[in-house]
Amino acid sequence: MRIGSWNAKEIIGTTLQKCEDNANSALDVLVYQARRKLMEDILWKPPNQVVRKGGFGSADVSFVPRTGRNKGLTVSFHTDKRWYGRRSEQFDQLFNSIRRVNRPGSGRVRVYAGNFKAYWASMVEKTGYRDRGGKFHPPMHFLQAPFNEMKANIISKIQNG
Questions:
Q1: What span, in angstroms and rounded, lies between the C-alpha atoms of 43 and 31?
Q2: What is the DSSP string of 55-120?
Q3: Mean pLDDT across the chain, nearest whole number?
Q4: CA-closest candidate to residue 145, choices 111, 96, 102
């Protein structure tokens, strides 16, 4: 027996695309909830906010050590490029760095927080941090908490939309 007009690649491709679109929409909800939770958790705002125009900077470092293996010799090197900008709001760099990333057709959909401007995202999420005054701020699970809430129904959302 033979089935006519059967295009398995087309049918499976359509189903996979539908599942990927449903996963994208489910993780868009996760990004929204993570941003909302981050805004709710940040209560403290620094009184003297530093605002500085952003840009990349690097430095040429040269010095003569007084002790050690290179004592009396000039040591020089060039540092890597680094972002040196500051913003007026405490959470805007971290807030804007929460994003969904996927490569179309790969089946991989991920949510990230942090980038070269907000490199401290993992400290805020997982370990906590100390401010300049020495006060410890406990971790804020702004990604983990919404994901744990959504984890039970995420498979049905991917299957059914």
A1: 20
A2: -EE--EEEE--SSSTTTTS-EEEEPPPEE--B-SSSSHHHHHH-EEEE-TTS--EEEE---SS-TT
A3: 82
A4: 111
CB of 90 within 8 A of CB of 120? no
Q: Taking a C-beta distance cutoff of 8 angstroms, is the pair 79, 61 a contact?
A: yes
Rounded to two decimals, what is the model's pTM? 0.66
- Structure-block tokens of residue 88: 């007026």
40 in Cβ contact with 149 (< 8 Å): no
Is the pLDDT at 91 greater than 70? The verdict is no
- CA dist 70 to 59, 62, 64, 75, 77, Å? 21, 13, 8, 8, 14
Which position has the token pair 């990333």? 101
CA proximity to 123, closest of 105, 137, 109: 137
Which helix (DSSP H) or strand (DSSP E) does residue 23 occupy?
helix 8-41
Burial 118-130 (b: 16+ CB within 10 A, else e): beebeebbeeeee
User: What residues have CB less than 8 Å from 39, skipping those under 6 apart?
Assistant: 91, 95
